[in-house]
Amino acid sequence: AEIGYEFARFIDDCLADVSYDEQKISRFCDGLRPGDPPDGQGYLRQAFRHYYLALFETDPEAKAEWQLLGNLEIGYHEQTRLQPEINEALVAPVITPEAFTRNLLRTLRPDSPWLTELIWLILRFLGRLSQLDRTIRLYLTAAQLETHRLVTESLMSLELPPDNRLRLGDDLTVHFPPQLSHLKNPELKAILAEVDPTPDSTLESGAEYWGDLPDRMHFIADLFRAYHFSAELFEMPRSASLEETLQ
């Protein structure tokens, strides 16, 4: 709905250019809102300008760095924009403090739910649940963090063709390609300095909490860099044998 549309617009407006046209790329970027996500599209402005620079770059390593920079800016925009939805999905198994308190009180009189509800209302009105509320909120906050960790570690994975399954909670085991091992582009190095606490290494790239934006961006940055030249990414994501099994 957002990024896909802008890629289609970029392909239609700019991809066929035979030489760099500053006025054209400026007009394209003017169609994107300034500012930070979720409302602003400043990172998209930067990304498409860097893609445009990559189109006319003759040095292979410099071209790859412009492309990687654009990819990271696209990713940064999208991950920031979706941060609330990602966290909401991750904590879905954890109930609200109010529901937890009601369930706890119901265990006192499981045979009389109406009486439990009445007790809950009276105690709430008298302000007698404030200490219990604080304790429960601390407990549920810890439960949410543990849920993040368990979901990231046990359930979240990314499948790359042909049959490469990456667990998002594990460190990447591949190395950066030689063309992107020693970076020169200052803008690329600047954004990596923000999101990658282990420079030029996939060490600690696994995301402990997928709901944590810096933790997530560290994994994504190393993923984009490590697989930048992987031609298999253009193949079908599932093998023929797996397709037959599913059918």
Brief characterization of the structure:
This protein has 247 residues and is mainly α. 59% of the residues lie in helices and 3% in strands.
How would you explain this protein's 3D organization?
The structure is a single chain. The protein has helices spanning 3-14, 22-30, 42-55, 60-81, 83-90, 97-106, 113-126, 130-154, 186-195, 213-226, 240-246; strands spanning 157-160, 164-167. It is mainly alpha-helical and 247 residues long. The chain has a two-stranded antiparallel ribbon with strand order 1-2. A hairpin with a 3-residue loop joins strand 1 (157-160) and strand 2. Helix 2 packs antiparallel against helix 3, helix 3 runs antiparallel to helix 4 and helix 4 packs antiparallel against helix 10 (213-226). The chain is elongated, with a radius of gyration of 24 Å.
Secondary structure layout:
Elements: H1 3-14, H2 22-30, H3 42-55, H4 60-81, H5 83-90, H6 97-106, H7 113-126, H8 130-154, E1 157-160, E2 164-167, H9 186-195, H10 213-226, H11 240-246
Antiparallel strand pairs: 1-2
Helix pairs in contact: 2-3, 3-4, 4-10, 6-7, 6-8
